[in-house]
Amino acid sequence: MATLTVTQNFGKGACDLGVYRSLGGYASLGPRLFDLSQFELIDLVSRSGLRGRGGAGFPTGMKWSFVPRNSGKPVYLVVNADEGEPGTFKDHVLMLEDPHRLIEGMLICGWALGVRTAYIYVRGEFLPAIEALNRALKQAYDAGILGENIQGTGYSLDIYVHRGAGAYICGEETALINSLEGYKGQPRLKPPFPAVSGAWASPTCVNNVETLMALPWILENGPAAYQALGTPKSGGTKVFSVSGDVKRPGVYEVPMGTPLMELLESKDLCQGIVGELKGVIPGGSSSPVLLAEEARKANLDYEALAALKTMLGSGAVIAFNTTRNAVGMLASLTRFYAHESCGQCTPCREGTGYADRILKSVVAGKGRDGDLEHMLDLAANFSYTTICPLAIADAWPIENFIGKFRPEFEKAVSANPGHASPRMDDDFRPGAFW
Amino acid sequence: MGHCHTKVDQPSTDEVFSKLEIPSVLERAEELVRRYPVPRSALLPMLWLAQEVLGWLPQEAIRWAAGKCEVSPVHAYGVSMFYTMYKKEPTGRFFLQICQNVSCHVLGAEDIIAHAEKTLETTSHGGTTSDNLFTLLRVECLGACGNGPVMQVNDDFATDVVDGALAMPTGVSLTKERFDKIVAWCRQQAKSQQKEPVRDASGGAFRTGGHPGAKGANTAAQKPDYAPAPPVLGLSVQKTEDGKVKVTWRADAGVSALHLENRTNGTEFISLATLTGKDKEWVGELPAGTELRMVSESQGRRAKPSNIAKVEA
Asked: In chain B, count of helices (H) and strands (E)?
């Protein structure tokens, strides 16, 4: 049995404070945490090799070290639980199964950064998870784990849950901060980075749920033990949410560097593919797709997947078999990004919608020659021209699905008997939609 | 529904405000405002509150929320239109949302949506059945892909009915048969209950004895430069050559004060000297047997005392 650092309490009823404590919870709330100075704690987290588990994989210790001291403003901790990336559902399960571990992780982060008030931004659809969190928070307050003067240390922390209302883009940290502040969830230009000027123009640390939940284990077992679980550059373990054509989809925690096929085929994990594997999306819908032969070579860590020109992202593995149509899959993705584009930057607002309308016409049997090139051209033009990476997240699937499954797309285009004639109707050009 | 907005008959101001301006709602509204440094930030929870009370968000309710959060009505309206979960029109008693995104799509969500449209005889783009019982909407990722295809019935994830309640057991995905089962359960529910029980839109923070924040806690407690005072570590005492006592320790340089305290014969500790975080040692004369400890202070908060060091004879 591999070492688990985040999901060890699954299925044990750890929602309850008593059970969580009996499983060794809140053990860090003592000399282990409160004897560390802020700088020692940040250094400890840096040495563990923990990287942000929300998708970008930024080293957590380094992120914390950017939060300025004595800026004359309060420091806020905001937990990003706005899990919206298609294929990702790990934070949802983590919050339902083990909310106290998140609270403990927040206390550790709060101590390191001098946070007095923290918010958990949970996406609106996760009402059952919000209820589980609120019950856990109440238990923690009643037990003196949160609130004023925690366990006589003079340290105080308040945590509030903020419910989102259905916008994928609020998972982007500056959009999340805007949403928390009561604005539309539109991303802000960086710099200034949230660490310097985030929520209410104060230093703000935005961390993913899984990142914070790894902290209690790191404090208990030491940074070297955590680092040793993974590869030299990607330390620790990672929680993967596996969906699609596997025999047992679900949430699995494995050490970094585990082969992708071991995750999909091991009898302790997903137990194998249903049908014959056609491809795998390894890190959430926006990560470039891998063909079956590429998937067999892939290891699950940041560097190995980057070498295959894809990314680990949020750890959402979507496997699909040879009966699935790549055109339909890409259509569901382009529709998603067109729907979720916040409307702030023109290339993304118009481009994602335009690409989506082209692909819709291909799916409807109205494709024309040149449509695929047109989509690729659009994707190249709306990448890297916007404030946030949503446009790139749309461009990568377009480029990779068309690049890797080109015959299927060409077949879909040629299903239109008049595919060679130019398109006369221009009702899906930019602007026509609005 | 979603981003497609149709024209809806709006209730009057009096009608809406008479439901919102009641003590139980106002109390919660005040509580929500206290949670944030500025009232404006309570806008999203405030809109949730109005939607919970009314079942949907008429324009006058948005105006009410704007007033509570001290923003202009047009700002609140813009925000409410940005987020898809605020219902700008009434829905049926059971709001069925079926995920159509990639994981669910791969596993046959389109078939189930087509089946749902046929069974309920309505469209999946926010159509409501003629008996006003069901509203059907195809949505993007619901964040439960391991059970794909998945559906939400009002605020609950549902892929099956287990022991007379909606449930999403591990590994159980929505099929046409299970969809029919859930619809039958809803119809049964509608017969046996007058109204659907209202769920607290704040996730139990107010109604079910959940967490309303610490007692009296609010963001007014938030202070600039708030840093927890890390305790002093490794306090030790040495004798210098001229017979004086030299005290050394390790402390965070960021703390505002370090209090050196002493006691003799096990009595109360009394303050000996107040130092700053930058000080590295203290030298003075003390009788043998004196016990010393150090307490760091930051922003008026005192950390727990350091270890106790004793002056040897």
From this structure: 8, 15
Which residues neighbour A359 within 8 Å (Cβ) at sequence distance 6 or greater?
Answer: A327, A330, A331, A334, A375
Options 3.30.1490.270, 3.20.20.60, 3.10.20.600, 3.40.50.2000; CATH for A239-321 is 3.10.20.600
Residue ranges of B 110-129 with Cβ closer than 8 A to chain A? 110
The secondary element (H helix, E strand) that includes residue B183 is helix B176-192
Q: How confident is the prediction along chain A (434 residues), in pLDDT tens digits per residue?
A: 578 999 999 999 999 999 999 999 999 998 888 878 787 899 999 999 999 998 888 999 999 999 987 777 889 999 999 998 999 999 999 999 999 999 999 999 999 998 888 999 999 999 999 999 999 998 998 898 998 888 877 788 889 999 999 999 999 999 999 999 999 999 999 999 999 999 999 999 999 999 999 999 999 999 999 999 988 888 899 999 999 999 999 999 999 999 999 999 999 999 999 999 999 999 989 899 999 999 999 999 999 999 999 999 999 999 999 999 999 999 999 999 999 999 999 999 999 999 999 999 999 998 999 999 999 999 999 999 999 999 999 999 999 999 999 999 999 999 999 898 877 766 666 655 44
Q: Do the chains contact at A249 and B210, CB–CB below 8 Å?
A: no
Question: Boundaries of CATH 1.10.10.1590 in chain B?
Answer: 1-87+196-222
Report domain extents, chain A: 17-226, 239-321, 326-414
Quote the minimal CA–CA distance from B157 to chain A in Å.
9
CA distance A2 to chain B (A): 22
What stretches of A3-145 adopt beta strand conformation (E)?
Answer: 75-81, 115-122
**Check whether domain B94-192 has CATH 3.40.30.10, yes or no:** yes
Instruction: State the CATH class of domain B233-310.
Output: mainly beta
Domain with CATH 3.40.30.10 in chain B: 94-192
Q: Give residues with Cβ within 8 angstroms of A318, minimum separation 6.
A: A86, A87, A242, A243, A244, A280, A281, A285, B102, B103, B106, B145
Test A127 with B203 for CB contact under 8 angstroms: yes
* Interface check B45 vs A, CB under 8 A: yes
Cβ contact A131–B103 (<8 Å): no
Alpha-carbon span A331 to B148, nearest angstrom: 18
A281 DSSP β-pair partners: A318
Nearest to A84 among B141, B202, B233 (CB): B141
Q: A17-226: which CATH number, 3.40.350.10, 3.20.190.10, 3.40.50.150, 3.40.50.11540?
A: 3.40.50.11540
Residues of A in contact with B219 (CB under 8 A): 117, 158
- Angstroms from B24 CA to nearest CA on chain A: 20
All residues of chain A having their beta carbon less than 8 Å from the beta carbon of residue B66 are: none
- 3 state SS of A117: strand
List the strands of the sheet with B151-153, edge to edge: B125-128, B134-139, B94-99, B151-153, B156-157
The model's pTM is 0.90
Residue A235 and residue A51 in contact, taking contact as beta carbons nearer than 8 Å: yes
The answer to whether the CB atoms of A182 and B42 lie below 8 A apart is yes
Does the beta-carbon distance from A163 to B48 stay under 8 Å? yes
The top-level CATH class assigned to B1-87+196-222 is: mainly alpha
- Smallest CA–CA distance from B37 into chain A, residue: A200
Q: Which residues of B touch A125 (CB under 8 A)?
A: 85, 142-143, 152
Fold designation for A326-414: de novo design (two linked rop proteins) (1.20.1440)
What is d(CA A128, CA A140) in angstroms, rounded to the nearest whole number?
18
